[in-house]
Amino acid sequence: MKFAVDLTQCENHGQCAFAAPRLFALDDEGQLSYRHEADEEFTSAELTGDDEDAVASAADMCPMQAIRLVG
Questions:
Q1: What does the pLDDT look like over 26-36, one tens digit per residue?
Q2: What does residue 26 show for φ and ψ, rounded to 5 degrees?
Q3: 27-43 b/e (C-beta count within 10 Å ≥ 16 → b)
Q4: From CA 8, how far away is CA 29, in angstroms rounded?
Q5: What is the DSSP secondary structure assignment for residue 26, as one 8-state letter?
Q6: Other C-beta atoms within 10 Å of 67: how many?
């Protein structure tokens, strides 16, 4: 399983960083760090079991519903 972040929907609220700090972080400017890697959508590498649970929580907590599970 992977996750994708729709960077056009993301408003950098940071709830994902609280739910899954190993996978999500805000940079010094308060922007989701994946903005440095993609413009419109970021797709992760394959996740492990613990990370899958954390991403599911992050997706549930995202107020903009910008995170989705893939695969």
A1: 999 999 999 99
A2: -100, 140
A3: eeeeebebbeeeeeebe
A4: 17
A5: B
A6: 28
Q: Could you tell me if 5 and 41 are in contact, meaning their C-beta atoms sit under 8 angstroms apart?
A: yes
Q: Which amino acid is at 25?
A: A
Q: What percent of the chain has pLDDT over 70?
A: 100
Cβ count within 10 A of residue 20: 24
pLDDT for 49:
84
∠ CA 37-10-2 to the nearest 5 degrees? 60
CATH of domain 2-70: 3.30.70.20
- Closest to 40 (Cα-Cα) out of 9, 2, 13, 63: 9
Contacts of 6 by beta carbon, 8 Å cutoff, 6+ apart: 40, 41, 66, 67, 68
